């Protein structure tokens, strides 16, 4: 493999890993506060693509306006799921919340099949994301570069929100001891709802970028990206937002390089991701940047 081909595949891997990382942030934020794996997160991502699709095709919104509306609606959907499905189970055993998360996932998928139909729909790719750039012997789709830059920019925003704002301070306090913070005047449900809304909005951005990269959408499209984002979150250290993005980059690069070096194994790329999850859980269950969290 030449150096140019290696660099091109590296950029492609970073682009794919950026998408995993964006979706993984929502997983890791919710887990950091509630110790809950929100398996409906991938389907929330899927819903965002339909919000954007109908905003463009039915309401004739500019793509950027449709994306903003989709982010807002997806954040509202995340908050609604928390308030309707998870809030009543705050003090229930964790297995109850986990089963509920799986149920919410199935609910969103089947409602989408009924409402939107099972036929894949083409997704719009704006003109600015269509050019193909050439750097020496490297050929890169502009969308890939923008995806990496958007992910890094959003990571900075997440850092500012989590570590430089009062809401972020409250989120970190809840992550340490959810049952004590209400005694300190913190509105627990408000903090959790904000976390769900913020994580869902980030998933919406990831979903829209995913739909532009693979320009068609269908109701079951969130299953595999959602599971791989979960793998990325565990790999990087679930509960750590930087670890989620790092895990996404590692997973994306590994997948792309696996196909580039051994194309005969391309049919096993999904299986490799889940094998990686098993190995991480066996040898380093806290992930690369994770830490032991209190029970």
The rounded distance between the terminal residues' Cα atoms is 48 Å
- From N to C, what is the helix and strand string? HHHHEEEHHHEHHH
Helix content: 55-70%
β-sheet strand percentage: under 5%
Query: How many domain regions?
Result: 1
CATH topology: ABC transporter involved in vitamin B12 uptake, BtuC
- Can you tell me the CATH class? Mainly Alpha
**CATH-defined architecture:** Orthogonal Bundle
Computed Rg: 19 Å
How many strand units?
Answer: 4
Give the neighbour order of strands across the main sheet.
Answer: 1-4
User: What integer is the average pLDDT?
Assistant: 89
Unreliable spans: none
Query: Structural class of the helices, strands and pairings?
Result: mainly alpha
Largest sheet: 2 strands, antiparallel
The rough form would be described as globular
Number of helices: 10
Notes on the protein architecture:
With 295 residues, the protein is mainly alpha-helical. It has a single domain, classed as ABC transporter involved in vitamin B12 uptake, BtuC, CATH 1.10.3470. The strands form 2 sheets. The chain has a two-stranded antiparallel ribbon. It has a two-stranded antiparallel ribbon with strand order 2-3. A hairpin with a 2-residue loop joins strand 2 and strand 3. Helix 2 packs antiparallel against helix 3. The longest helix has 32 residues. It is globular and about 60 Å long. 43% of the residues are buried. The mean pLDDT is 89.
